[in-house]
Structures are given as structure tokens and as C-alpha cells.
From TrEMBL:
SUPFAM superfamilies: Hypothetical protein YjiA, C-terminal domain, P-loop containing nucleoside triphosphate hydrolases
Name the UniProt record assigns to this protein: GTP-binding protein
Catalytic activity line of the entry: GTP + H2O = GDP + phosphate + H(+)
This protein's record includes keyword Chaperone: yes
Source domain of life: Bacteria
Amino acid sequence: MSAIPVTVLTGFLGAGKTTLLNRLLRDPALAGTAVLVNEFGEIGLDHLLVERLDGDTVLLNAGCLCCTVRGDLVRALRDLTGREIRRVVVETTGLADPAPILQTLMAEPMLAARYRLDGVVTLVDAVAGMATLDAQMEAVKQAAVADRLVLSKADLAAPEAVAALEARLRALNPGAPLLRPNAPAEALLDCGLYDPATKHPDVRRWLDAEAFAGHHHHHHHHDVSRHDARIHSFCLTFDEPLPWDGLATWIDVLTTTRGESVLRLKGILSLEGEERPVAIHGVQGLFHPPVMLERWPDGDDRRSRLVFILRDLDRAVVENGLRAFAESARREREVAG
């Protein structure tokens, strides 16, 4: 049985998550979807706003997605086992750092066997978004880790304000498509690294190395906030196949020593001795087991590509460490062989 995709819907308070969710749930593409809602406050209201009366809406306990609610999330997903569902949407409170949800999905063995993270969809309010990004680190993280960015209320904001916010979001997360709330469900779903039904990596859509590299060097907004300045994304590309032992050791060292600074790491790897590509995905010190994909896409140059979204960690530290561990692994093998 193929794993059930889980979409994490996040965005700061008032960004329009529930409105978007209600529209999506009326789309045939989301037939058989279970919704888990984490509402911050004494009384959960969002679950009352979700127009779904078939019993598949579960309200998680009020509060941040810390230990208590992470336990609730595990229990809720376990309780869905055996139900005829095709997809799960987790709507987070606007105050939530999405990383604990992603970690929960990847770290719980029982969940990992049945569910797969499909992607993070982050809503940003075009009217209040710039001020929110200036004031709230959580909002910056929500935007930085997104697989899809959705700009809401653009019709209520001045065109120049929308353009400035779009430029800031592209600089913060150049790999995520920037969409509007009326985007078709298909544009918001299935944004993970691979589709288990085909085992085929959608490299071109998911990872555009040139775009990441270009944005990293040329798209720093002159009015970048103190939060944005602490978070940056870039792509490392390797022409030669990488040694898995060296890479795995480096990832272990990086996540043990600086895991809190690695907001996300996604990659498609060409490894020594392997014809097929390998996908890796990590969130703040926690890594999903590597996945061997069916094949490279037609016409792909088969280079390894690693995308990093880091906070308070210099690119050179990461890049130099990776290259050093890879070289060390190669040398050890040459000496041994």
C-alpha cells in the first residue's frame, strides 16, 4: 500500500489558511482528505470553520506544536489508520514553527511507514505580510521552509507593496513557486521530492539549481530585515558522484553540532557505485532515511544537487565541511583498496 501524502498548511495569523482549505476541500482532487487542525487558544475555532461534516476533521489540543500537540498529532494519525483516506492536511496555528510537525512525520516509525510528507504550503498576507516578516521570526521560518508560497489578499494591497513582498519572498525562498489562493489544487499538492506511485523524481519542478544559485548571489533586497538576513538558501552542485560514507558522516556531524541552524535540507544525489539517484530530506537535525529513486529524469545531467535553507550558519562552513568529508572518504578508500 502506498504511503498517504501529508500536506502541512501554515502561515501567520489571519493569512487565510482556513479560507484556502475550505476551497480546496470542495475540489475533487482532495476527495478522501482528512483534516487535522491545530488551533492556538483556549477554544479551537478553526475546526468549526472547516466545511467538512464527515467526521474526518480532528482538532488537536490548543497550543503550540510542541511536545503535547506532537503527541496529539501522532495519535490522530494513528487513529486514521484503517480509514479510507487518500490524503491528510495538517493546518497549523498561525503562531507555529512548522519544523516540529515535519520532524514528527519523519521521526515516528509507525507514521513513516504509512505517511509521507508531501510538502509545506505557506500562506502570506499581502496586506500585513511585510510587517509580519519584520516582526515575527516564526513567519520568516514558515516562508523559508515552504515548498509552495501562496500570497493572499493581493487584491487589497497596493501593487507596489505586492511587488516588494514578492521580491522579498523570492529572495528568502527562491525555490518555492509563488502562487495565489485561487491556484488549482494540483499546483498546491504533490510537491514532494518524488511520487511513490511512479518512483520518479520531479527534479526540474522541485529543484532548480541555477535559480537557487542565481538568487543567492543577485537577489538580496536592499531593505532586508534582521530576520531575513539570518536565513539564507543556496544550492551546492557536484559534477562527480559523491561517496555516501563521507556524505553520511558529514550530515551526522552537521546535524549533531548545528542541527537547529539547518531549517531544511533537500537533495538528489549521484552516489559512487549507484546508477540510480538517491533523495534525502532533513529538517532541523532530523533526516528521513535516504530513498533510492527509480531512475533519473530523461535528459538530466545526473549531478548531485543539495539545497540548504540555513539560519545563522555560513555557507562556507557547510560547503567546506562537505567537501572535506567527501575527500577524506575517497582517500581512505584509496588507501584501503
